[in-house]
Amino acid sequence: MNTPTSAFRIALLAAASICTLTACTVGPDYVKPPATTAATYKELEGTGWKPAQPADTITRGAWWSVYADLSLDALEQQVAGANQNVQAAEARFRAARATVAQYRSSFFPVVTANGDYSRARTSENVLHKSTAGLTLNDYLVQADASWEPDLWGRVSRSVEGAKAEAQASAADAQAALLSMQAELATDYFELRGLDQERQLLDDTIKAYKEALELTQHRYAGGIATDADVAQAQTQLQTTQAQALDLGVQRAQLEHAIAILIGQTPSTFSLPVAPLIAVPVVAEAGVPSALLERRPDIASAERHIADMNAQIGVATAAFFPSLILSVTGGLEATNYSQWLMAPSRLWSLGPALAGTLLDFGGRASVKEQARAHYDESVAQYRQTVLTAFGEVEDNLAALRVLEQEAAAQDDAVAAAQRSLAVVSNRYKNGAITYLDVVVAQTTALSNERNAVSIARRRMAASVALIKALGGGWDASALPTDEQIVHPAAPASEAAAHG
């Protein structure tokens, strides 16, 4: 006579035999789709431009250190742990990892248990019933187990897709971190550029005050006119207003930096300091390497793997499912007999079920899965093209701005020489102060343009590092083992690269 345990074992062996015989995981196996790449970047190949300060290596996780700015280093180190967008992205990764565990649980039986007590009386007027007119107790404790063997790979494909989506979420978390770090560096260098421009305006205001005093003395001596004094005053006050206007931009940048590091703007401030960092041109490498260096590209590729697995899930719906279930427990009317062997109960039975006709419902789901896969492939390739474009854009910006900076430096030197000549001629009474004003305006405009170009070069340098992935690599993605059995280092790696 078979016991429940032996019968259940027989059923498990039968299911295992079926799985072995079929060996089916339906749906297409994942193959990474190709993406069009060039042999080299146009801005490095066809222009003849040789970066003056290339950064051959970008430190993974601390790419900003190439700028050798201690204040920036201190700020950047706070982004990973304090920026709320980064924290949200890391939480989404943990949720995706939990989804993997949820799908993996379908590989195993579901076991439930319940206990029950009732006391009931049956009517005496019920015919042909042995309990008529009796008041009976019912003591019951029972366990149920059911298991659906993964005959067609539905669960396997679901787990496969969930793992790919968890890896995509990990890449998204890294992309969010890189984006916030790059935004912080850009805002920081913009702020330092404003500090340098403010220093330039302050020095200019000091020079304009001296020029005004000179003009007033000349006016008192009858050498200059009141128009000269008015022009000198206008030039001074206009420049003072320009210097004050920079305060609005600086305050806004300071507030933005505070938010990026998770602080309230009212509690954060940065001391004034000039822009001392120089633009760094990160080593671009070959375009094909970019596919492994950009977290957004890695995320898009992992999303394709998820969509491919969903085709398998939809395909498995065409095949029947086998469910094995077993129930066992103890039931008795008298409490004293409840836990005895004769009170045991059990049942065991497999169930095979499948859909014979659904008028195209499953076929539509499968077609939808294929369409989602095609969409994800197109999005992946678009992400790759966008990435190449960003690298080319910033290489071009750095190349052109380097040439523009050299030309602007020459313009500044020429404007300063012109101002010196005009000032001397005015002191000698050869010209009016209007000529001095024109020379002063030209010199200041060129000097401010030079500072503006310096800020733009720093922004392009940061944008290039971001476009190249900030030193990240696809090997930093959590492995299947880290997703299934998470540990602290794996979690940190997912969020921080």
TrEMBL record:
Principal cellular location given in the protein's record: membrane
Domain of life: Bacteria
Residue ranges that the Swiss-Prot or TrEMBL entry lists as coiled coil: 72-99, 163-211
Stretch forming the signal peptide: 1-23
Annotated GO CC locations: plasma membrane
Alphabetized GO MF terms: efflux transmembrane transporter activity
Gene3D superfamilies: Outer membrane efflux proteins (OEP)
Similarity section: Belongs to the outer membrane factor (OMF) (TC 1.B.17) family.
The name this protein goes by in its record: Outer membrane protein OprM
